[in-house]
Amino acid sequence: MSAPATAGSTGTAAPATTPAEPRRIVPLAFRAAGVGLPLLSVGAAVGFSANNDPNAFVTYAVTMTAAVTAAVWGLWGLVDRRLLRASETLSREAGLIAHGTADGKTGARIPLARYGDLAPVAKAVNELSDKLAAARRDTARAVAESTAKTEEQKTRLAAVLRDLHEGVLVCNLKHQILLYNQTALDILHLAGDLGLGRSLLHFVVAEPVIHTLERLTLRVREGRHVNHEHGTTAQFVGATTDGRILLAGRMSAILQDPPDGSDEPPTITGYVITLSDATSELAALGQRDALLREATEGFCAPIANLRAVLETLDDTPELGPEERAAFQAALMESSNALSERLARVTNEYRSVVTGSWPMSDIHSTNLINLIRHRVGPEAQYGVTLTGLPQWVHGDSYSLVILFGYLIEYVYALTGVPAYDLSVEPGDSWVYLDITWRGPSVPSGIVDSWLDHPLPDALGGLTVGDVLQHHKSTMWSEPVKGPGAEGELLSRLRVPLPPALKPPSAHTAARGGARPEFFDFNLLHQPLATSELGRTPLDQLHYVVFDTETTGLSPSTGDEIIQIAAVRVVGGRILTGETFNTLVNPKRSIPAESIPFHGITDAMVADKPTIDKVLPQFRGFVSGAVLIAHNAAFDLKFLKMKERASGVRFDSPVLDTMLLSRMLLGEGGDHTLDGIAERLGIEVVDRHTALGDSLVTAAVFLRMVEMLKERDVRTLDDAIRRANIIVELAARERAF
C-alpha cells in the first residue's frame, strides 16, 4: 500500500510511494483485551460452576481481578512504549526538522516504519517539512532578490552622493546622523567617520540648525509648505563647532503623512542637509567689511580737518581777499570730492554686503513668531505680535538674534515688562518696530550698541554688521499711541528691505470682490442700552472675522469652507491671537468659486465640519464686539448653522461697509480693496479669510478716528448710525 508524497513549491513531485504502513499494535491490543476479557469471564464462570466448589466465587473473583490487572498493565506498557515514548521521540525529530536546512527539493524526512501507530502523525510532519522547506526556499529567494535590489540602489545612491560637490547628511529629529557622504567629511575637515547615530550638533553649531528646523516645523504645522515658494526647504548659514569653517546650508524636511481621516498636518520625522564650505567666501566678505568700514570711517577725519581749516580761514580776517578766495575754493573742492567719494563708497559697500550675504523673502508673522520663541516663556518680559503682516527680505537667523538682543537690552535699560512687535510698510522700506510704554532709549546708547557682538551669531557678527547686511540702521523715538488721545509710547525702529518676490507678486490674481449683500433683519440691530453701549469705540474689545464659502446663497445649499478672526484690543491688532480653520462643507466646491478663495475639495476633505467648528469660534469671540466687512453675508451663514452647532451669535456687530457708506457717502467704492486703497493700507494675503480679517481690522481702526470727527464715539452711536444707513438702503430697494 502506498500514499502520494507532498511536492515542494518548485513543482517537482516526491517519490511515488512510501514504505508500507506498519500494523497498528495498540488498537489490536485494545480489541484483543476487549474480546478476551469477556470470553475469559464467561469461560471461568462456566468452569468454576461445574466443579461444585464452595469457594468457586472467591476463586473466580481472584482470577478475574488478576486477569484485569494483567490486561491493564499490559495495555499501559504497550501505550507507553508505542505511543507516549514514540510521541516524545517524534516531537524531538520534528524540532530537528524545524531547525533543519532546505537545500533539497523536499524537507527532512521521518521514517514512518519507526513510529507504528503514530505513523499518520509522522506522515503529517513530513508533509509540513516539505512545505516549510518550500517556504524557506521562497523566503531565501525573496531575500536574495531584495538584497540585490537594495545593494543596487545603495550602490547608485553611493555613486550619486560621491559625485555631489555638496556634503549631504540625513538626520532624525534628535539630530542623529543616519547617512552622509564623503564630501560632508571633506567639508567638515574630518579625518575619520562622522559616526552613524552620533549627533550632528557635535560637529556643527546648534543654533542655526535648530532655528531652521523650527522655521520648517512652523511652516508645515500651518500648512504653508503646500503653496510656499520653497516648499519644505530653507537655507541657513552655519559653522563648525570649532569656528574654523563657515557653512552655507540648505535643510529639507522629511514628512510623514497623517493617518487616513485625520485632520492633522504632516509630521516632520527628520531632515536632509546639504552643506558647502563658505569659509573663504564669507571670510572674504568679513575682510571686505572690515576694510570698507575702515575706509569709510577713515574719510571722516580728513573731512573734519578740511572743514576745520575752512572755519579757521573764516576766523583769520588778515588774509587778502584773493588769497582767501583761492584757498577757500581749493579746500571746498577737496571737501566736496571727499564727500562724494564717501557717499559713493558707502553705497557700493552696502550693495556688495547686501548682495553677497545669503538672504530670502520672509513673512513678518513667521519672523516675529521666531523672535517670540527665542525670547521664550521664561523671560521676565513679554512680546506681543501686532499689526498687519508684510513681506521682507533678509537673513532670518541673524534678524531673530538681533531683535531678541535688542529687546533684552531695552528691558535691561527701562525695566518695561511688555513689548509690541509690529511691521509697517513705507515707500522703500518695511519698518520693524519694538514698541513699549516708557521712556525712549537715548540715541547715544543706541549708537553704542552697534559695536556689541551678538551672542550665537556666526563669525562674531555685531549689531552693526547685521544692520549693514540689510542696508539698514536703527533709532529710538517717542511716538503717540493709538487713538486721538493716545498715550506717549516709545519705539525702536529698524527698516528692512521689502521682499524681492512676495507671493502676491507671482500668484495668479483671484476673483473680484464679493457683491454687496443686504439682509435688513440681520443688519438692523437694537442698541446695546448698557454699559457696553456707552463704552467709547476705542476702548472696546473687538474680534474681526471673515468667512470663505462655496457660493453666495446659503439658503440654497452654499456652505462655509473657511472661517478666521483676529482680536483688536486697545487700538492694536493682536496678530498673534487669531482663529483660522478650514471647514469640510460636506459637498463639492464649485469650480467657478475656487478663483475667489483658492480652496479646493482636497484641502477640506479631512477638515472638521461646521457643527464642530462654530462652538470653538463662539468661544473665541465671546465677550467681544464683532467686526466684518459686508457683515450680513457672513452673519447669514452663521445664523443658519446656530441650531445644528448648538450656539448663538448674539454679540453686537459693526460692518465696515456700512461705516464706509456713513463716512464717505453712497457714491464711491465701498469694497474692502477700494477702502483700503483710499486709506493707504497695503493689502497682504488678500482673499483668504485671515488675510481679509487683518485688512478689515486695519480699516476699522482708521475709521474709529474718522467716526469721532462725526460725533460717533460710543458703540450705541455707531449702531444707531448704521441702522439709519440700513433703513435708507431698505427704502431705496423698496422703490
Automatic annotation (TrEMBL):
SMART domains membership: EXOIII, PAS
Entry's EC annotation: 2.7.7.7
Keyword annotations: Exonuclease, Hydrolase, Membrane, Nuclease, Transmembrane, Transmembrane helix
MF-aspect GO terms: exonuclease activity
InterPro entries tied to this protein: DnaQ, HAMP_dom, PAS, PAS-like_dom_sf, Ribonucl_H, RNaseH-like_sf, RNaseH_sf
Domain HAMP: 81-137
Any Pfam family the entry gives: RNase_T
Annotated PROSITE patterns: HAMP
Catalytic activity as recorded in UniProt: DNA(n) + a 2'-deoxyribonucleoside 5'-triphosphate = DNA(n+1) + diphosphate
EC primary class: transferase
Transmembrane segments: 28-50, 56-79
Role description: DNA polymerase III is a complex, multichain enzyme responsible for most of the replicative synthesis in bacteria. The epsilon subunit contain the editing function and is a proofreading 3'-5' exonuclease.
PANTHER family in UniProt: DNA POLYMERASE III SUBUNIT EPSILON
Record-given protein name: DNA-directed DNA polymerase
Species the sequence originates in: Azospirillum formosense
